[in-house]
Write a structure and sequence with these properties.
This protein has three domains: 209 residues, FAD/NAD(P)-binding domain (3-Layer(bba) Sandwich), CATH 3.50.50.60; 108 residues, FAD/NAD(P)-binding domain; 116 residues, FAD/NAD-linked reductase, C-terminal dimerisation domain (Enolase-like, domain 1), CATH 3.30.390.30. It starts with a strand and ends with a helix. With 477 residues, the chain is of the alpha/beta class. 46% of the residues are buried. The longest helix has 27 residues. It is 34% helix and 24% strand. Helix 1 packs parallel to helix 8, helix 3 runs antiparallel to helix 5 and helix 3 packs parallel to helix 6. Bound molecules: flavin-adenine dinucleotide and nicotinamide-adenine-dinucleotide.
């Protein structure tokens, strides 16, 4: 006979864990099914936490973060092994497993290990390793099965020489030459990490800039830093026409005919939704061509009692948003009148070297939409804290409307960007104008203080606009 729960969650990544905890907190009986032996999904096991830990390790061991202080030759360790590189990653991942286990136990969530699929809209069957299948019935389902790296058939993935962002964590040695295909977030982050370790990295992107979703000045700053500080060769506006492997050597042929050789190729050009094994055709839940589940603004799928959150619904596909989407979904599923919508102001952090973070509307997007905006910028070069920590290339940028000086966007490039961005995020949430940054007092010496100088710069740019239009009017009359 099938067991029955108020809620059945499939997947224990950020969306599954937080959705389960949300419903359980409000007294619902919850069962969580996870096919992997450990919880946490891509965020803990293959994506966010491993890559961010490796970044810290690479920055520490290479001494890159301190080179602004002690010179370009500064190094903590010269022969970095894969063991050095991976040691801390394992420790952090294991600590994250414990945190998730404790959270689910505290909320009395029933855990089942196995791969779930639907047999009808209210019943899933769980295939378990060397154990009998188990049937679960529930009033509400949360699909939180995440995404996986896209594997185009023409790329000869072998998990050793041609790898995706999951396999890269199992490399047995640090490559000497690495080709990264894809200048999106994953490609740029791993190019930074391996570049910091001293690996000869070539980063290939089919688009004309890295991280096309960012303002051009931000992605240009990243390209310049990758090239200048880490010797990464950035190839833009170029497609890959073939990847071949012979012995221990990979060759990547570019659309312009060039052939590049390397001992490792990391392919990271997009992800697709983990929906195909769920047998959603037994439920009426609709997906798109890339396997992402269609949901409305409450994260309800095309079948009323089945919700979906996190990477399985596609954009923005971040751990940060996955958790919130799942909480919102559960509030609607059980009418909890608690958190009925996502926050409107979503920060976005990219853990490249340098770190980049944005919030709200970018300058380029605002101008493309015909919104009259001005910007204000301040460099870490003239910021005392920037000088102290040796980050003189970083900067902050505010985007605001010309008419009423309403701050609609902000970005930060440099040390601490992903933390600093929460300052303008709060300002945008509370509809602050530029005057907030003019009036606020910031600790000294801090990088946050740069926002005040960005606001001053914004005022000066506004003033120059007024002067220019007065001069133009004077010329006409
Ligand atoms: C390299 C990399 C770096 C990243 N860095 C960041 C970052 O810095 N910041 C950020 O916010 N986001 C980052 N992300 C994105 C983030 O990891 C994902 O957005 C997040 O993990 C999505 O959470 P989720 O719960 O939707 O899915 P996942 O974390 O993918 O979890 C889904 C779970 O469902 C399980 N599952 C799938 N199918 C079944 C089934 N049929 N039965 C049972 N279980 C099943 C899987 O085993 C998995 O454990 C990164 C991703 C990658 C790949
Ligand atoms: N810091 C973070 O928040 C973070 C970090 C990593 C991943 N993620 C998540 O993972 C998702 C997937 O990231 P991604 O980098 O794999 O994909 P992406 O879609 O962000 O970027 C893919 C890039 O590869 C390029 N490309 C595609 N095919 C190519 C080819 N044949 N040759 C050369 N270039 C090619 C595309 O033009 C694009 O610029 C992100 O959208 C994000 O949601 C987030």
């Amino acid at each position: 006979m099938a067991e029955h729960y108020d809620l059945c969650v499939i997947g224990s990544g950020p969306a599954g864990e937080k959705g389960a905890a949300q419903a359980a907190y409000f007294g619902k009986s919850v069962c969580l099914i996870e096919r992997a032996p450990k919880p946490g999904g891509a965020a803990v096991n293959t994506g966010t936490i491993p890559s961010k830990t490796l970044r810290e390790t690479a920055l520490y061991l290479s001494g890159l973060r301190q080179r602004g202080l002690y010179g370009v030759d500064y190094r903590v360790k010269s022969d970095i092994t894969i063991g050095d590189f991976m040691h801390r990653e394992r420790a952090v991942v294991e600590a994250a497993w414990e945190t998730i286990d404790a959270n689910l136990d505290r909320h009395k969530v029933t855990r089942i290990q196995g791969a779930a699929h639907f047999v009808d809209p209210y019943t899933v069957e769980v295939a378990r390793y060397q154990q009998p299948q188990r049937r679960i019935r529930a009033d509400v389902f949360l699909l939180a099965t995440g995404s996986r790296p896209a594997h185009p058939p023409e790329i000869p993935f072998d998990g050793r020489i041609v790898v995706d962002s999951d396999d890269v964590l199992s490399l047995t040695q640090i490559p000497q030459r690495l080709i990264v295909i894809g200048g999106g977030v994953i490609g740029c982050e791993y190019a930074s990490i391996f570049g910091a370790l001293g690996v000869r990295v070539t980063l290939i992107n089919s688009r004309e800039r890295l991280l096309m979703q960012l303002d051009a000045d931000l992605s240009d700053a990243l390209r310049v830093e990758l090239t200048r500080r880490m010797g990464v060769q950035v190839v833009l506006d170029t497609n890959v026409s073939a990847v071949t492997v012979e012995g221990d050597l990979a060759t990547v042929t570019l659309s312009d005919g060039r052939a590049l050789a390397a001992d490792c190729v990391l392919y990271c050009a997009g992800r697709e939704g983990n929906s195909e094994g769920l047998q959603l055709d037994n439920t009426g839940v609709k997906t798109n061509a890339r396997g992402f589940v269609q949901v409305d603004s409450t994260f309800r799928s095309t079948t009323a009692h089945i919700f979906a959150a996190g990477d399985i619904v596609g954009f923005p596909a971040l751990a940060s948003t996955a958790m919130e989407q799942a909480r919102v979904a559960m509030c609607h599923a059980f009418d909890l009148k608690y958190k009925m919508q996502m926050g409107a102001v979503l920060p976005y952090g990219v853990w490249t070297v340098p770190e980049i973070a944005t919030v709200g509307m970018g300058e380029d997007e605002a101008r493309a939409k015909g919104i009259a905006v001005e910007i204000g910028k301040a460099s870490f070069r003239t910021n005392p804290r920037g000088l102290i920590i040796g980050d003189t290339e970083g900067f902050v940028k505010l985007v605001f409307t010309v008419d009423d000086r309403l701050v609609i966007g902000a970005s930060v490039v440099g040390e601490g960007a992903c933390e600093l961005i929460h300052v303008p995020a709060a300002a945008i949430h509370f509809n602050a104008t530029l005057d907030y940054f003019i009036d606020a007092v910031f600790n000294y010496p801090t990088l946050s203080d740069a926002f005040k100088y960005a606001a001053y710069d914004g005022l000066q740019r506004l003033q120059r606009r007024v002067s220019r239009s007065m001069e133009a009017r004077a010329r006409v009359t």
